[in-house]
Structure formats: structure tokens, C-alpha cells
Amino acid sequence: MADKQAFFDYINNGYTTKGDFINLGAAMLNGETVKDAYVKVPLKTLNRHGLIAGATGTGKTKTLQIIAENLSEKGIPVLLMDIKGDLSGIAEPGTTNAKIEERHAAIGFSYEAKKFPAEILSLSDQEGVRLRATVSEFGPVLLSRILDLSDVQAGIVSVIFKYCDDNKMPLLDLKDFKKILQYTTEEGKDEFAEEYGRISSSSTGAILRKVVELEQQGADLFFGEKSFDTDDLLRIDENGRGYINIIRLTDIQDRPKLFSTFMLSLLAEIYATFPEQGDSGRPELVIFIDEAHLIFNEASSALLNQIESIVKLIRSKGVGLYFVTQNPTDVPDAVLSQLGLKIQHALRAFTAKDRKAIKLTAENYPLSEYYKTDEVLTALGIGEALVSALNEKGIPTPLARTMLRAPMSRMDVLTDDELKNLLKTSKLIPKYNEVIDRESAYEMLTEKIEIANKEEAKEKAQKEKEAARKSTPSRSSSRRRSTSNPWIKTLSSPTVIRSVLGILGKLMK
Q1: Which of 100, 198, 324, 404 is 20 to 30 Å from 228 at the Cα level?
Q2: How many helices (H) and strands (E) does the chain have?
Q3: Which residue, among 398, 390, 394, 367, has the nearest Cα to 34 in the 3D structure?
Q4: Which of 356, 325, 322, 358 is nearest to 338 (CA)?
Q5: 321 phi and psi, to 5 degrees?
């Protein structure tokens, strides 16, 4: 009993907060939940980023759902990446059962079913608010890193952007970018050579192949207008709850290049447009990136450096990033070192490599006199996790094996009818789902080439006409040539003509 009381005091002291917080559940000791030993995460530290990890089926998605609900209830908007398609149920209230009631009785507070304001977003042809960005908004540096270009190729992209800026040619979609790439070494090569230096056709060909590769993964649907305004992620409903924005990504699991392109552009846009928050006491926006390995596994070293830089800097804008993945080793060390909240569900040890990974994971958590971390990692049940957070002073909290509360919203997807009704009430779909294709670099260059071709054809026809005129003798010149011949002059003289007429007269007599 003394040990249990000491543990209760240890957790309560370690998770005491002066400001507002979210409650994840209650700590466990010797496999049993200690009632009222609440594991609380201060709102103040939620922009310090975090990790939710664990093997398949251990409850990672439900943990994500729990945190998103509680943030929404505190008036903090959330952005979720729904790759498996099982988060739309947030828009409908959950239902209780005996297991949920038993879980909450053990934790120390009753279960309450609620639904939350939700917006469905889409990167593809799936139903929802269309997310788009223009090529110009990416800029030459970010676009070059996404395409994994060499320094020489990146320099060409910078020249192309400069040319388009100088000539007021908007780069909106990949069609625009491909057109200007071709123009630099074909119709416009002399113009580029004079203004910016000669550009190699082999380099532009290599860039074009990278663009086509990106296009094949569906990026042509993402690049274009109308660009999504990141301020629309910050909406609050009439009850003061933050909107939970759910991006449906079920159809792009096999297109990691598109996913990483979108994520990086979104983070870069947020960093560029959100104001500095300083020590505001609560985050402005929290983003959950499910299946985070899809970003890191396919990323080049330049792209990884860009991601790491944004992760380090974006928290000053009041934005928290939470990576959800099966194994912490899926996330680069440079990113892991920036994370404040770590929620580790069970890991499975089937091979020697798995055991090494578990040992390495255990070393990333604070030491605890109450747990052997590597043993607990394989013994956690569904809906249980090891939690380590930061207190309001930025100090790591005690490691707590936690019985997590149940989600308040539905732990399942919306039906087709429920989804249609949700989409009908959306205020963003009318704003973003209209297809816009205004005049941009493609149309302007096409017109410029056509005018140049017409001028060239006209000039060529004029030259041919002049050449033909010079080669064909005129009547007057023929007449002049004939009169200048001495024999013709003699034969046509009046004396010769009179002599010929006299002879003809005599013959006729």
C-alpha cells in the first residue's frame, strides 16, 4: 500500500500543472490502474512536438483521436493525416459499453460521448475540400529539393523563376513549369542566352524527367489554383471548439512523393505566413502526421535537411507536429531530439533485430524506479502506453505506464450518407473546389511562340517573294536588252526596212 501511495504522489507531483492541460488517462503500477493518478500534458508544451509509436493494432490511431478531441475542446484547431481512412468518425459521438465504463471507472472519471466540428480535406479526386498550391508558392529552392536536383539543375530552376518574375508569367501548375523548361532550350534559347547565359538541354531534360516522375504520382492534381489558405485551418466553431481538419489520404499510400511534397509545402507555408507566437501558453495549431515513415523513407538528404529545419523552427509559430509511426526508428534522430511528448504503445519482439530496436527505444525514455522499460514495452495492452511529456518548465515528466481514456467520438468511420451530409455543410468546399485555369506561363509562352512563328513565316515569305522578283526579268528590261543589241538595231533601222519593202514591191510586179 505504501508503494502504491508513493507512486500516486510521484505521478501527481510529476504531472502537476498551473495552466490548462489535457488529460490522457491514469498511470499504472504492477499492471493495475492507479485511480486519479492522472497523466496530464500542459497546453503550454504542446508546440514542442511529439511522437506516437507502436506496433500495428496497439491503439496509436485512438490515441491520436483522444488528443485531437481534447485539443478541439480547448479551442485549438487540429490537422490530421488520415491515411488508413478511420478518423472521420470524429464528426459523430461515440457510444459507451461495459469495457469503456470499466476503463473510465479505473481511471477516475466518467465517460462522455461527444462529436466534434470536422472538415474533410482531399489531395486527390476524393470528396472533400481540395488542397492545392501553385508552383510559384513553392519557390525555386523548395521545388529543387523536392525534385532532388543537383546544384547545376537547381541553378537552372532559379533562373527560370527569375525569368518568369521578370516577364510577369505566373507559374501555377506543372504544365506551366514544363512549358518554360522546354522554352529555355528551344524557341527561347537565344533570349535566355543573352539575358541569363546558355542553358544545357541535357540539364533541362533531366529536370523534366523528375517533374514527370512527380506528375505520375498525382502531383498535377495538387499544383494549381485556388491555393489553400492556411488560415482556414485555424477556424473555431460557434461553441468555441477548434475545427478538426481531416485530410483523406487513403488513395496515396503508394505515392509517397506526393505525400512528402504536400507536407513540406504545407509546413513551409505555415512557417512563412503564421506570426511569431513567443511563449503564448497554448499552441495555435497541432498537426498529426500518420504513417510518418512515408515522409522520411522516400526523402532525399536535402529534403530531410529541409524537414528538420522546419521542425526546429516552426514551434515558434505556435505549431506542434506529432509523428505517428510503428517504430521510433522510422523518424530521424535529428527530429526525435526535438520532440517533447512521447507516447509509446507496445512493440513486438519476434527477431533479434526487434529486440535491439526495443532496447534502443527504451534508452530514449527517462529512467524509472517503478518500471523496467524494455520489459514493459512488450507487455503493454491495447489502449496502454508509456508516456513521457514536458512540464511547464520544459523538464521531462516521470515515465508513466498509462491506461489511456477512450475517445469521446465514434471509433469508426462515417457512413456514406453521414459523409455526404458533412460535406454539404462545409463552408470551404464552395471556396476551393471550383477549378480555375487562368492565363499563366503556358498560355503566355504559347502565344509568344505563335506570334514569333507567324513573324518568322511572314519574313520568310517576304524574302522568297523578293528573291523571285529579282530572278524574273521585267518587260521593260527585256525591251531595253533587245534594243541594245547591234544586229537588232541594224535590222530595225528605217533604211533597211525601206530597202526590204522596195524589193518586195518589185517582186510583186
Answers
A1: 324
A2: 21, 12
A3: 398
A4: 322
A5: -110, 130
Say how far apart CA 103 and CA 106 lie, in whole Å. 5
**Alpha carbons 308 and 301: distance in angstroms, whole number:** 10
pLDDT of residue 499: 66
Report CA-CA distances (Å) from 159 to 5, 151, 155, 170, 202.
Answer: 68, 12, 6, 14, 16
Nearest alpha-carbon partner for 103 in 381, 410, 386, 397: 381
Cell (9 digits) for 284: 495555435
Q: Do residues 247 and 288 make contact, with C-beta atoms less than 8 angstroms apart? A: no
What are the grid coordinates assigned to 247, written together?
485530410
CA distances 361 to 330, 337, 355, 436, Å, are 11, 13, 10, 48
Instruction: Retrieve residue 320's grid coordinates.
Output: 506542434
Name the nearest CA neighbour of 131 among 59, 26, 223, 12. 223
Beta carbons within 10 angstroms of residue 10's beta carbon = 18
pLDDT band at 332 (very low <50, low <70, confident <90, very high): confident
Task: List, for residues 236-251, the tens digit of each pLDDT value.
Answer: 999 999 999 999 887 7
